[in-house]
Amino acid sequence: MKIGKRLAAMVFAGTVTLASTVSFADVPKDAAGKDWPQFHGPARDNISKETGLLKEWPKDGPPLAWKVKGVGDGHSSVAVANGKIYTAGKEGDSVMLFALNEADGKQAWKAEVGGRGRSNEGQGGTGPRATPTADGDMVYMIGPAGDVVGLSAADGKQVWHVNMVSDFGGSAPHWDYSESPTIDGDNLICTPGGSRGTVVALNKKTGKEVWRSKDFKDAAAYAPTLVADIGGVHQIISFTEAHLAGISAKDGSVLWVADRKGATAVIPTPVIKDDYIFVTSSYKIGCDLFKINSAGGKFTPEKIYSNTDMMDHHGGVIQLDGNIYGHSDTKGWICMDMLTGKLKWSDKGIGKGSIAYADGHFYLRSEGKPGTIALIEATPDGYKEHGRFNQPDRSNKQAWPHPVIANGKLYIRDMETLLCYDIKAK
Question: Measured between alpha carbons, how far is 308 from 313 in angstroms, rounded to an integer?
Fold first, then answer.
């Protein structure tokens, strides 16, 4: 991408050290309590505020509260809000959004999102990979073919629909659109990518365009956008295969751009702490830490380090107390000091997979057979398991949906099956 002289001058220009703060200023309205209204939770940091959960699991794992089949093929995780569970899957040539009752998993309604896209069956199937986002009386979904819908949370009736290819000139990445919708105040943020602008803000009630990032034109990748306040400026963080960027949440103008070359598929959600942003991806790339310096409303990204100790493919990473936890293709499960990149521990554990956090523990899910799920302490002192079990009703696909903890339950999605475990301490 040619970003022009003005943007090029911002890339790694200077080393201003004026401190700034980063915070998730807008989260879905259903973030109160212990709901999980979007991919990676209320603040999109993959951290649950749950307490009073089991510290040790029985030999066969926590009790199964219920299981349901029939949520279509796909790798969507779940959103939990206001007594409903939302997920998505492919039925025939259509992608459907399913709303289930939180109490028993029974279907409340289902609604069509759009086409199934073109993903290769040998790469996990042609179902959706994005997770719905619930916000107030609406629920939103991005389908693999670029369909973006706003539906009534009450009955699934479509309120609006746009397509990122036909309406915004976007081009789907190789494995189709996979980002989960981001809500920022009155706007829904999505990433069509391409020459008309990488990022687009839509009015969340109507689907009408509010702005697009006309001066930032990277192709779409797979990571969701983030909302942050950096240096007192509200912005959208976009992570593509070529750059990490801050976009004004007000008008879509480019605030800063940092070169960060990925390969094949850039998937994991960035991690923001204060004025630092940590990113990682696989395919021999590794991780990078950037400091976003600010002065007088101007921003200069500064690369602090790069290494290959954390090379996360798609299972996600979590920042807790200044440490990064997750699975690395080079080291297994690791704990790394975020600010220095120093490795604190590594362990093969249950093998490659995804991660979530609640009540002092990480919940790990293996992507391969037999689908092992483990509970480990969230500590920089080493890998310490407190129970594991193998998922029942295991499909023949890799287990890519990330685990979710909400309202005393652990949710595990595997293609058409959704399992709900009771993890509340008695």
Answer: 12
Please give the Cα distance from 128 to 74 (Å, whole number).
5
What does the longest C-alpha to C-alpha distance in the chain come to? 62
Task: Dump the DSSP string for 362-375.
Answer: EEEEESSTT-EEEE
Could you tell me the residue ranges of all domains in the chain? 42-225+311-422
Q: Which residues pair with 426 in a beta bridge?
A: none
As a whole number of angstroms, the distance between CA 165 and CA 403 comes to 30
What does DSSP assign to residue 153? T
Percent of the chain with pLDDT over 70: 91
Supply the pTM of this predicted model: 0.92
8 Å CB contact between 393 and 414: yes
Work out the average pLDDT over 249-276. Answer: 98
- CA-wise closest residue to 199 among 243, 159, 134: 243
In 3D space, the residue among 340, 341, 349 whose CA is nearest the CA of residue 375 turns out to be 349
The three-state secondary structure class of 377 is strand
Beta bridge partners of 151: 139, 158
Burial-class residue 163 by CB neighbours within 10 Å (0-12, 13-18, 19+): middle
Name the token pair of 225: 């956008």
* Nearest-angstrom CA–CA distance, 296 and 306: 28
What is the CATH number that goes with domain 42-225+311-422?
2.40.128.630
Residue 297 confidence class, pLDDT cut points 50, 70, 90:
confident
- Please list, in sequence order, all residues whose beta carbon lies within 8 angstroms of the beta carbon of residue 32, skipping any fewer than 6 positions away: none
